[in-house]
Amino acid sequence: MQFAREFAITAEKTKGKCTIIVGSGVNHWYHNNLHYRAGISALVLCGCVGVNGGGLNHYTGQEKLTPMASWSTLAMALDWIRPPRLQNGPSFHYVHSDQWRYEKAHPDYHPPSGRFARQHVMDLQVEAVRMGWLPFYPQFNHNPIQLVREAEQAGAHNPPEIARWMVDQLRTGKTRFSVEEPDLPENWPRVWLIWRANALHSSAKGQEYFQRHYLGTHSNAIAEEQAQDSVQEVAWREASTQGKMNLVVDLNFRMDTSALYSDVILPSASWYEKDDLNTTDLHSYFHPLGAAVPPCWESRSDWDIFRSLAEKLSEIAPAHFPKPFRDLVATPLLHDTPDEIAQPEVGDWSKGECEPIPGKTMPRFSIVERDYVNLVHRFKSLGPEIKEHGIEDHGIDMRVADLYDEFAKLVPPYDWNGNRYPSIVEARDAAEAVLFFAPEANGEIAWRGFKERARQTGLPLADLAESYRGVRYDFADLGKQPRRILTSPCWSGIVNNGRAYSGYVMNVERLIPWRTLTGRQHLYLDHEAYRAFGESCPTFKPRIALENTSNLVKSQPVGKAVTLACSTPHGKWHIHSTYYDDLRMLTLSRGVEPFWLNDRDAAEIGVLDNDWVEAYNDNGVIVTRAVVSARVPRGICIFYHSPERTISFPKSPLRWAASWRRDQQHYPHAAQAGADGRRLRAELLSLQRLRAAGHRSRHLCDRPQTGGQTAVRLTREHA
Average pLDDT, whole number, for the chain? Predict the structure, then answer.
């Protein structure tokens, strides 16, 4: 109470200059959105949002690039075709890596009755796809290209007719969403191209299940499948699938875990070896990445690698797709569009609660034309769709047809099929396109965006860009010095005249409506799902009781043991898994990523500082050293997020041999993994076994507790 009063008094005296800085640790906890909303509510009530020196600032990665409008146009090929096919990663991997099969009911409160009274999260995932809340790929249990052909044979020729035909197919059950039967072979993902992620390690929440169900190799998970009596909306198949991926390709600049498990590695250039742009939401500048030296050995820039893939695909396309063809894309209901108010009441058309209406009660269906023979030409040239549709972000459409023609005069031409387009053959040309069409780098486009925002709101806003309307950055400008972003209609801060960026300043000072349904700040979320789960307002959720988890069903204590809750903050000596193998970082971290535990918990089972320990639960195992510290609360241990396993990760004496024998018995094709290039790459890492090294080991047994937390059981064992 004292802190709350002091916070409010400070906000009152400073006119809102109270800020909350949040790191990634909170994001790793169960119900992390409630933690965020609790802080946001305090800031809103004290008038600290939209004020320089106030607000919530989350230091969670630097992934939110600044020139979103122009970047997404180029990255998603919106200059040639639309809509793109985009998938949220957590849903994709949760379903396809079959982690849902190892869960039962919700581990904590869930609605006892009503629409959202589902025992299993997978049921909610299926309903979300069916009602158009989330995308999912593959989309259907039939090839969408073939579906278009069948629709045409049935007399449907234009996009609205094909959409109506598709609705009938889904209504009658002749076609189903693949998420409803994810373990049918026709619904598996088959090819995985990994870029800008260590997807088989730090991005793999549930790495052992990726290894088992994606790659078909053995894993250290011992959990048993148990969802068959809990799921209702998804078809259950008794035999789960191991080894869904036929091909794994990794575009990477380092030999990380994903590269070691991949079939093909495309070596990418690193910093100072390529021309590129760098922007984040943590600073307000454009930074260039200039090619100071050429790429080493066989590596190429990312842009050159993708261009080479496009060239090869166009080369072989005539044998498979000699002519352009039409494809069906299911697009979910989108933010910053009228879709946000499409479902004032939730209804599932598959249960007869409402009519199946694309773009309202189910996904929107679009027809796009693909031309694989000319894919490389489309890759190398900036397409004409920009002239027709302009660029867009946050519901703000900016028309740039005349500027497209102007840009064509600034870069080399690219001619194909009798037409001339601006060239983006080289990475630098692509960077020029991103800068030229970004309202954060082109004052004219910013001015047009503010004019459009003024039309939407009825407020005078163009003056925010009037003073820099003639400013345009190019790549050469950035090479001389980083350039500060311009005040943009796509963002909510004002940076004119050297002002520091702070979110939502435009909403407060210029009265631009907030991006909510009412245009006002929201503390209460009036949605059926939030009401059902009791989370319309930030609500305290107690930690998950051990007996409600499924993470220690088979993992038994070995010798003296202690069970602890384990939290996984963001990396202390690395950024995700990058930089972990740097000598200086390894020196700071004792050469490993250690487990931190309380001194009295350690003394209880005889663990000394720097002892080797094992942390395990039904989902996997980790072998590392212990850091014994009184700073860690009793009952808690800490293991920092996603260290790389390519160094300083010995094999588990407790789990390794047993898991290998088990996988050979239960998953026969895992034993054949070496035949198709998927034998466990850990064999190549020269990791010493603890018993052979004569180390003492203590065993830690993990399980989730309160959001992102896991429990640890320490047992003592002499090698």
Answer: 88
